[in-house]
């Protein structure tokens, strides 16, 4: 018995020595290098190379979570961006489970292993996010709860690590964006977010992170767009494009932000051309979307021939039925604005939209309003002001008249014709009840801006308060946020 015990001890010591020697033989610089190579390939959408580098990382250090985590993330991106197939989703779930198991083994050895806690929290967080997008709210909830617990522990152990801050920052922000229907459940179990803190943590990760800086920039691009902080959003998109020019999905997101946020359709067209020339991975779906966005950008510039050309490229790819439908519709609009109702009708029919959307031809006032809206979207405010006489003399229906005056008043404000802006925007408040019930509160918001610019503080205060009295209209939350920012400026004057 004694001999057996001694033998066992000798064997165990030998195994421990071997294990320690094996650990010491791992080239951690090479592990880091391979990890970075896999990340760079991933963000260039070169999934094959990225997976190869992850496998090499795992071979070098099978008990280190890095290789396992980023291999799982390959299939997260494949599933969410490219394929949307059950096969890629199941592969992601399997690899996320493997990552979690590797982390658990490290935590069994040392429960204060900050790295293991971070990667476990990170992969469970992405799995939870994926489940949420698949409407598996219960599964998302439990994954999120466990992920946040792990990230909290990691942050306590290593509070200055920007990669850990990225994971926690993502949760801090996203929890605040959860639907109101599940907020009580989140609060009941202590899941409380902090939007401001989350954005700061993500910014820190974007600037100083090692493995997560690109992911932090990607999420910041999205979140700043949600917050209507479009310049910040565009800056992060641009940084990612400069770093990963082959990532067609990031460029498409940037093009969309340029059209809908920054309001720079000319740059959007330039980026569409850049994607067309630099689509190394041959991704057809983002190219189809980019062509459609190029068509929208050209339409916003009132360059209807160019809009038709971009839309025809979307149609010729024949990739996405929704893109094709929208392209046909936009071509129809282009032809009608150009005065060719017959050709417009042919494309309207091909769009398969509800006939009520195009059964009545556009009037001259409709076409004028489209051009005014386009000038607004492309920030050609001087061109709108040049149409003032036409706007004032056109026979509008009540809603369209109010809408045209709103755009005119806003344009006057943007080019610092403040007195004229005040006069035009004030007209709207005297008009009868409008079907488009957003116009009056938005006009009051713009009028408040005019008063503030003219240093009419009391008038500005009163006008902002009047705007807030309206409710139940389109984009009311957006307007309330915008007014809050103006009221803050007013308090500082």
SSE run: HHHHHHHHHHHHHHHHHHHHHHHHHH
The third-level CATH topology of the largest domain is: Serine Threonine Protein Phosphatase 5, Tetratricopeptide repeat
Q: Tell me how many strands there are.
A: 0
CATH architecture of the largest domain: Alpha Horseshoe
Explain the overall architecture.
This protein has 493 residues and is mostly helical. The chain has three domains: 30-159, Serine Threonine Protein Phosphatase 5, Tetratricopeptide repeat (Alpha Horseshoe); 247-362, Serine Threonine Protein Phosphatase 5, Tetratricopeptide repeat; 377-492, Tetratricopeptide repeat domain (Serine Threonine Protein Phosphatase 5, Tetratricopeptide repeat). Helix content is 78%, strand content 0%. Helix 13 packs antiparallel against helix 14, helix 22 (398-414) runs parallel beside helix 24 (439-453) and helix 23 (418-429) runs antiparallel to helix 24. The radius of gyration is 28 Å and the shape is globular. The model is unreliable at 1-22 (pLDDT under 50).
Summarize the entry for a quick read.
With 493 residues, this protein is mostly helical.
